[in-house]
Amino acid sequence: MKKKTKRLLIILIPVAIVLIAAALYGLGLLGVLSPSAEKSDAQVIRMIGAQAIWQNRLEDRIPQTAISDVMMRHMEQEGEPPRKLLFIVYDGALATAAGLRAEKNPEAPIGSLAAKGGAWLGFAGGAKPGDQSTSTSAGFAGMFTGVWADRNGVAENSDTLSPETRTVMYRLHAQGKQARFFFSWEPHMTVNNRLEAEEFPALYEYCGSDAGTFTAMLEGIEDGMDAVIGSLEYTDSAGHTTGFNLRSRYMNAIANAENDAMALIAAAEERAETYGEDWLIVLGSDHGGTGYGHGGTSLAESTTWFVANQKIF
Ligand SMILES: [Zn+2]
């Protein structure tokens, strides 16, 4: 090979590699390289089917709205011991990733709670697929009110909860319990639960970041609050920036949420021991995701999950 040609190749090959990588990255962002819906559904079916922790199957996923009654039933039990609630949502945490996490780190919160009470597959998106978006607002509204958007009014992130449907925070407050929702995604308060938050500001605490949410929830538990409910954004943020998948960036985000949950659960368990309180501890997700987003009807987007320290379903 001529010296000149060789020198040219030394320059051109790296340039070509960079250009190809950039093109693939661009196509990935545009969703061109995302798997087709059928392929993605088949992948979820295969993966979930191979995960041992789930008590139910994809065919009989539990509507996410059902968690509302579970929380109320626990809190409404009469007499001693005092009933307490810790509900932590890992925003946009894939069910497949939760199952994988439990397999790889069985001592972490998802795995350890699943071993104590159980783990269940749920679904977002309304009674019929496509009735409402598999979005944060619709997911939380369903879990908080116990009914879908046709009754609570929140089908999209831009919707506001109807004043006729009330959240678990409000219903517990009406029973004289101290309940609060901690979060760092502002629309929870300024859009979705706006009317309730204006009327009862003590039910909502905007915490600025996951670190803020964690600290405020910990204080809530330690101060003797009855119901501490929170949303951690690690997984949703990772999904929207590096993809909803089982690769290390996304799995590291789950690990971050688990670290926070571990400390919050330890604080609740310490109170249970010291004060003889009966804590229902639930972890879950509001929706899943595919590619770099969510909102649609695929199994990856609509399959949610719950794990709890008691048999809740
Ligand atoms: Zn979300």
Structure characterization notes:
The chain is an alpha/beta fold and 313 residues long. The protein has helices at 3-30, 37-49, 66-75, 95-104, 109-116, 136-145, 149-152, 168-174, 187-192, 194-199, 210-222, 234-242, 248-275, 299-302, and strands at 62-63, 83-90, 118-123, 179-183, 204-206, 227-232, 278-284, 303-308. Helix content is 50%, strand content 14%. α4 packs across α5 (109-116). It is globular, with a radius of gyration of 21 Å. The chain has two domains: 1-33; 37-308, Alkaline Phosphatase, subunit A (3-Layer(aba) Sandwich). Strands 1-3-8-7-2-6-4-5 form an eight-stranded mixed beta sheet, with helices on both faces. The model has no long low-confidence stretch (mean pLDDT 94). The chain has 14 helices and eight strands. The structure holds zinc ion. Zinc ion is lined by residues 91-92, 136, 139, 236, 286-287.
CATH topology of the largest domain: Alkaline Phosphatase, subunit A
CATH H-level name of the largest domain... which superfamily?
Alkaline Phosphatase, subunit A
Mean pLDDT over all positions = 94
Helical stretch tally: 14
Distance between the termini: 72 Å
- How much helicity do the residues have? 40-55%
Report strand %: 5-15%
Order of helices and strands: HHEHEHHEHHHEHHEHEHHEHE
List of distinct ligands in this structure: zinc ion
CATH architecture of the largest domain: 3-Layer(aba) Sandwich
Largest sheet: 8 strands, mixed
Radius of gyration: 21 Å
- Low-confidence stretches are none
Q: Can you identify the CATH class of the largest domain?
A: Alpha Beta
- Strand line-up across the major sheet: 1-3-8-7-2-6-4-5
Structural class: alpha/beta
What's the structural domain tally? 2
